[in-house]
Amino acid sequence: MEGCTCAGAEVYTNFRAPAPHGVALLFTALAHRRNREVRAQRPIDPMNDPIEKSPDAPWTVLGVESSCDETAAAVVRMTPDGGEVLSDVIATQIAEHAPYGGVVPEIASRAHLRAVVPVIREAVERAGGWSTLNAVAVTAGPGLVGALLVGVQAAKSLAWAKRLPLVGVNHLAGHMLAPFLVREQAIGSRPQFPFVALLASGGHTALYRCDSPTQMRELGATRDDAAGEAFDKVAKLLGLGYPGGPIIDRLAATGDPLAVPFTQPMRGRDNLEFSFSGLKTAVSVHVAKHGIPTAGAGLEDLAASVQKTIVDNLVRKLVAAAVREGVSHAVISGGVAANRGLRAAALDACRARGISLHVPPAKSCTDNAAMIAWAGAVALDAGLRDGPTLNARASWPVTAWALGAQSS
Ligand code: KG4
Ligand code: ZN
Predict the structure, then answer these.
(1) For ligand 1, what atom is nearest to the CA of residue 227?
(2) CATH number for domain 187-359, candidates 3.30.40.10, 3.30.420.40, 3.40.50.970, 3.30.450.20
(3) Ligand 1 atom, smallest distance to 341 CA
(4) What CA–CA distance (Å, rounded) separates 101 from 98?
(5) For the segment 49-107, what is each residue's pLDDT rounded down to a tens digit?
């Protein structure tokens, strides 16, 4: 397996792929072994009768994530200080989607199938083996349903074979609770409830009020494109590659953010909603008029101007949400939270209003399974469990997850 690092996480790009039907073979083999055990110990209902951990053992949870274009597995232990990350493995599909300028769902599903077994195996081995674990958590939505199904089926099979409790995790809740992972380089200490959270990723941009790890309410969301999608679409328009966010972030560092005065999205609207599709149109109009600038001759200025427009909007609404809700803690999470301009601007704006800002390090912001394992541990600790009927959901409001897993 060849590896590299991306945003500080271990990212594997070239797996020795299992046989094409390797996943099915693995699950069949696990099923046979489990059946032998079941025959020896009847009566038993393996999925509905998992072995619960002893009350004094800390939750040590395998998390599996496959909602979009990263196959990820991680093991996280619940400690009084937060989630201790015992392993954190990610197989990225970026190279496979890059030629198309965005995620192609069918390619994503197939890539997840190839990667899911080696990624889980690696994460479990690094954490000390199966005996270290006492539960399995998996992203069950929202996301690409074909992609989600791969992780959900793998997690269900493994939980069943190992007789471990299982819980389906809402991907958005995973992002929002990511600041509770114990990692270096986080901005701010751990947030205190209640807090407002800005979740800005490639698929979602919304503001939430979080009263506890399992009580979350949406305050406002994007009406069209997500912030990450806006970065990606502008980068595609400028022929810069995919994903666009990190590329624009890099270019913007040396550009003049006031060079191109784009109109603020939803200017004059006093609400907590977002809209980014107009910015993409404004950039295409600008490019049609002036041409695509080259590096060193306007490209950095255009990137900085686009980034400033997105960032100013996100920061203004985050502060407005905290003020409206009367809370003094705020969180930024999701892939766009890795943006250096956003981190700096949000820190300044929050400081000026007396709001404590918490931003996880980049490897906790972009999709990862440690955040899923941690959200799973919190849900399991609150008594939530899922069984063999756990299913993937393309859409799943975080409020519905908050107090009842998929049964709500
Ligand atoms: O949370 P994430 O990894 O996956 C989704 O759930 O969507 O977010 C991916 C998004 C992409 O749109 C990517 O361009 C954006 O996050 N992104 C960034 C940066 N790093 C990733 N956007 C702006 N600046 C960055 N440094
Ligand atoms: Zn995400």
Answers:
(1) 12
(2) 3.30.420.40
(3) 24
(4) 5
(5) 789 999 999 999 999 999 999 999 999 999 999 999 999 999 999 999 988 888 899 99
Do 61 and 158 form a contact (C-beta atoms < 8 A)?
no
> What's the sign of the alpha-carbon dihedral 82, 87, 93, 94?
positive
Cα-to-centroid distance, 227 and ligand 1 (Å): 8
Question: CA 192, CA 330: separation in Å to the nearest integer?
Answer: 9
Q: Which residues contact 379 (CB under 8 A, 6 or more apart)?
A: 137, 167, 169, 213, 214, 405
232 lines ligand 1 (CB under 6 A): yes
Of all atoms in ligand 1, which is nearest to the CA of residue 201?
8
Distance of CA 238 from the midpoint of ligand 2 (Å): 24
Judge if the beta carbon of residue 69 lies within 6 A of ligand 1: no
Q: Which ligand is nearest to the CA of 338?
A: 1
From the CB of 243, is ligand 1 less than 6 Å away? yes
The structure's pTM equals: 0.86
Task: Name the residues around ion ligand 2, CB cutoff 5 A.
Answer: 201, 367
Q: Is 187-359 in the same CATH topology as 2-178+367-407?
A: yes
Fold designation for 2-178+367-407: Nucleotidyltransferase; domain 5 (3.30.420)
Tens of pLDDT, residue by residue over 208-259, are: 999 988 889 999 999 999 999 999 999 999 999 989 999 999 999 999 999 9
